[in-house]
Write a structure and sequence with these properties.
Blueprint: H1 4-14, E1 21-27, E2 39-45, H2 49-58, E3 65-68, E4 74-76, E5 81-87, E6 95-99, E7 110-116, H3 121-130, E8 133-134, H4 146-152, E9 155-156, E10 159-160, E11 165-172, E12 177-180, E13 185-188, E14 191-194, E15 205-216, H5 221-238, H6 258-264, E16 271-272, E17 275-277, E18 285-287, H7 293-311, E19 320-322
Parallel strand pairs: 2-5, 3-5, 4-19
Antiparallel strand pairs: 1-2, 6-7, 7-15, 8-15, 9-10, 11-12, 11-15, 13-14, 16-17, 17-18
Helix pairs in contact: 3-5
Length: 325
């Protein structure tokens, strides 16, 4: 029997109020890089921004809503997720690049890139490089989308997303579009939240697109592509890229590295059923093929407890955990 929420969205689909793909009780393991996760009550892949806007206007206030892009940096618990999953992979993936010609006193080396939430970080980096734009190479090492990169200030190889943000387009649970500037957010290492200056805007407000500023170097195309290749090679050499994982599990503590602490505590290689701390990089947990979310979560708790006991340091998870046990 369908839930009240499922009935609302099914009726909207049948009446063509929503045009995207709607799935009920959809297994989420196929959408996460850990290949783990229970079912989503409602799984919606919008056709475009307007379709998403229409769907949000129909969803009852207070409904839990989560977004999934490439499914990295995410642990979905085995009991599944109530509410709505909005899936952006393959949609909301428009990207626009405009470079100044130096008119009206604008820096002729400045390029403005606008990317929707579903644009893969690696594609963003590659398109920037193809346009001789410098500074976006670090995004090639992030296995997620620009929506996720904005939400957590994703970074790699010394670069960070919000260093380049000019403005962001948000959408709230009522389906309203809002343009916000960087000073309306408190941006920290792997954490972004509304700044107190705008009186805690609606917490149910999500990044729909971002506008970013980078520098153009006509001589930099070859150099930028070489840098992306170097970073991807380094990533493959130091991270378990060929095994199911969700990226870095823990944030690095100030002036230290989570991987170093985990290894120092003798935890590298530790397994709980099918979940294992990677032998290649201790801040990665891999699914050896038969792990459940509860195994990953148990391993996370074991790491936190052991590092605190031995090093008196509290590790914070970078991975987002959603759903019911």
């Amino acid at each position: 029997m369908n839930t009240p929420l499922q009935k609302i969205l099914l009726a909207a689909e049948e009446s063509k109020q929503i045009k995207g793909s709607l799935k009920l009780n959809e297994p989420l393991a196929r959408y996460t890089t850990w290949r783990i996760g229970g079912e989503a009550e409602c799984f919606f892949k919008p056709e475009n921004e307007q379709d998403l806007q229409g769907a949000l206007k129909l969803i009852p206030e207070g409904t839990l809503i989560h977004w999934i892009g490439l499914g990295s940096n995410l642990l979905v618990r085995d009991g599944g997720v109530k509410g709505v999953i909005i899936y952006t992979n393959g949609v909301l993936n428009e990207i626009d690049i405009k470079c100044s010609d130096g008119a009206a006193g604008v820096d002729k080396n400045e390029c403005i890139i606008t990317a929707q939430a579903g644009v893969a970080c690696a594609i963003f980096a590659r398109k920037a490089a193809n346009n001789s734009i410098n500074g976006a190479e670090f995004l090639s090492g992030i296995p997620g989308t620009m929506g996720g990169a904005l939400a957590m200030n994703a970074g790699a190889f010394g670069g960070e997303t919000w260093r380049h943000v000019v403005s962001v387009k948000m959408i709230n649970q009522k389906g309203d579009f809002i343009i916000r500037s960087p000073n309306e957010f408190n941006v920290q290492y792997r954490h972004v939240e509304p700044a107190s200056s705008h009186n805690k805007n609606d917490p149910n407000e999500w990044f729909l697109s971002g506008t970013f500023s980078f520098e153009k170097d006509e001589l930099g195309l070859k150099q930028s592509k070489q840098e992306i290749k170097r970073l991807l090679t380094k990533r493959a050499e130091t991270q378990p890229t060929k095994q199911a994982n969700a990226g870095s599990v823990f944030k690095n503590p100030e002036n230290d590295y989570a991987a170093r602490l985990i290894e120092q505590c003798g935890l590298k290689g530790l397994s709980i059923n099918g979940a294992q701390i990677s032998l290649k990089h201790a801040n990665f947990i891999i699914n050896n093929g038969n792990a459940q979310a509860k195994d990953i979560e148990a391993l996370i708790e074991t790491i936190k407890a052991t590092v605190f006991e031995q090093c008196k340091i509290v590790l914070e998870t970078e991975v987002k955990i959603i759903g019911a046990h």
